[in-house]
Amino acid sequence: MNTEEKEKKLLKKRIGFLGPEATFSHLVVKKRFPKDLHQSLDSIEAIIDFVKEHTEDEERIGLIPIENSTGGMILESVDLLLEEDFHLYIQEELSLNVELALIGRKGEEIKEIFSHPTPLFYCRKWLKARFPLAKLIKTSSTSEAAQIVSQTPGSAALSTRLASEIYKLDILEFPVLEGSLNLTQFFVLGRSPYLGDTAETTLVFSVKDEPGSLCSFLEPFRDEKLNIKRIVSRPIPGKLNTYLFLFSIQAGKESLRLENALRKAQRYSLWLKSLGSYPVRETFNV
């Protein structure tokens, strides 16, 4: 194999996503990385392990959901990002405007409706009005819901149009709750920092268990007029009243204001680590 062939081989990229096929994660991967290899994985932790695994002939990156405008933060993702031995970098933030489809078989009476807990919660009033007698059943993903419905007469799934194609189901209604915003945000993870222009930075930090410690940490960002996009706290296992924070600021690594704020804030932190600065891409639509 000559040098040129080796370089081409090294450029091969494989993206791990939360499967199975036809999930919203899969849709985002297909839209953002249409020409690359896609790897369906069964958990967020498996995606992180997949990216960490070294391979000589391909670049590995992973897509994990981080926040939903209805269901809030994805706590499994947050907890894994907060782990001390987490050594990956956020390379991009992606968003998907989720438009759900009700899929099943035309002409059947619907007695059971399957879906992931977030869509079931988001659409609960619509479901109660349209199918007051139907039993709502939670699944691990919208794609699994479609798979179950393909084998279960008298049922329907809140899922995707792609799932209806894969599992040979009819689209009974699309979009469900037309006109309402249901946005899911994702992080793209890699083994190295993003090298281009950036728009946002995410940090992990802890502060002392004393009055005003969190306020003191945050004040430098206010003073530098930096907008905090998200902040979420999670308890440290085995340590009472002690927390780690995941913290995203709308400023990239090129920002002098961010540099100044971090220098001042670091005085008030017990532990501070950057998970990377990265671009925020335009929102995809289903």
From TrEMBL:
What is the top-level taxon of the source organism?
Bacteria
Q: Domain ACT: where?
A: 202-277
Which source organism? Candidatus Methylacidiphilum infernorum
Query: What does the record give as the reaction this protein catalyses?
Result: prephenate + H(+) = 3-phenylpyruvate + CO2 + H2O
Query: What are the residue boundaries of the Prephenate dehydratase domain, all occurrences included?
Result: 14-191
Keywords per UniProt? Amino-acid biosynthesis, Aromatic amino acid biosynthesis, Lyase, Phenylalanine biosynthesis
Q: Identify this protein by name.
A: prephenate dehydratase
Quote the pathway field. Amino-acid biosynthesis; L-phenylalanine biosynthesis; phenylpyruvate from prephenate: step 1/1
